[in-house]
Amino acid sequence: MIDKAKIQAVMQYYGKAYVALADVASAWERGERPEDTFFTLKNLPVRVFVEPTNRCNKRCVYCARPNMTRQSASLTLDDFKRAVDGIPAGAYLQCTGNGEPLLNPDTPAMIAHARQKGLLVGIITNGTRLTAKLSRALIEAGPHQVQISFDAVDRDVFNASYNSPKGGCGYEATLSKILRFLDMERREYRKGIFVSIASVLTNAVRPVREKSRAYWERLPVDNYFEAPLLSLQTDSGTAHPARTGEEPWKLCSNPWKAVKVNADGAVNPCVHDFSSKYVIGNIKQQPLREIVNSPAAVALRKALYYQDIDFFKAIGYNCQDCNVWSQATGHDVRGYLDGSFPVTYGLIVSQLAGCASYTPEKMENLRRAASEASGALSGI
Question: Got the DSSP string for 242-296?
């Protein structure tokens, strides 16, 4: 059953966010020099990224994690509640970060709490922790969306992306766990969780991209998408180099539309700041609503607006060379409003509706695939 009240809350929240971001884009394009109050957010960002843990059980070759200077940590359930309580209904909370969220045993409880607070809730996982027990706990927690990172339905390319993982993180085991989770959700629970499969388009992945897409599109998966490799303050050499030096520097949308809460409670205005170089507050000390408009947060938005390279050099950011705002990625303010925003909004409404129907053929394909894969899941 569609929750009309929740969809209305989303429409109102995202509508306000769109208008506010459009005002920022217009002022910047006209070269205006607004008052300092212009850089204060009237509402919390529409997307709140929360990192249940920064520990990970994989070694993706393109990941920024090897460059992370933070200590390993996991967010407590109490600190999670402190972070999300007060976030208005309609905002989107994503459990993700610089680690595998399901390595924190409290993650299902976090998701359940956020749902009770009226938030839209998603999680990004690498799929390796989807044991039968944890799959049930995750489904019963009720996320609106589960995004599973799986670069290629090809053993050699999978190994190239993930540094030849072994055991429960290996190709066969991971694919089998994903299929079991999907089968459990679609045929047993039938909760209508929006399941996405995400592939990072590295040079190794490109030759098998159509093979992977064809595999997932024959199953009851809601969305299969290919994500560009973002700069993330590191260069793994696994994708074509960013061409931002050939483009005029555009205003990044991230500090206006999103915020990231780390496993230690520290908050970053850039969701790609995996080393937590610039901290604008800590949820253990003050509410998130205050943190997003702290002096440090306002200073960063102002520096972005005026393209203050000295400011970014001082805090260790390389915003001028980042590819997030580039034409290829499209997360500059205007690009986001015209491109990603309507797509994201549409996907969120689809996730919230949770009323997708799947053809008998896709359901039968899933049953067969899950059954064939079950041999790789002995005891896990």
Answer: P-GGGS----BSHHHHEEEE-TTSEEESSTT-TT--S--EETTTS-HHHHTTSHH
- The closest of 154, 93, 97, 166 to 128, measured between CA atoms, is 166
Q: What is the pLDDT of residues 20-49, one digit of tens each?
A: 999 999 999 999 999 999 999 998 898 999
Q: Looking at residue 161, what is its pLDDT?
A: 83
Half-sphere exposure for 1 (CA within 13 Å, toward CB): 3
Domains detected in the chain: 4-377 (3.20.20.70)
10 Å CB burial of residue 309 (0-12, 13-18, 19+) is: middle
Which residue blocks in the chain are alpha helix, DSSP H?
Answer: 4-29, 77-84, 107-116, 132-141, 155-162, 171-183, 209-217, 254-257, 288-291, 295-305, 309-315, 333-335, 341-353, 360-373
DSSP letter at 332 equals B
More confident residue, 30 or 89: 30
**The pair of three-digit structure tokens given for residue 169, joined into one six-digit string:** 């993180």
DSSP character at residue 53 = B
**What one-character DSSP code corresponds to residue 103?**
G
Confirm if 363 and 201 have CB atoms less than 8 A apart: no
Confidence of residue 165 (pLDDT cuts 50, 70, 90): confident
* Predicted TM-score of the model (pTM): 0.90
> CB 154: neighbour CB atoms within 10 A?
19
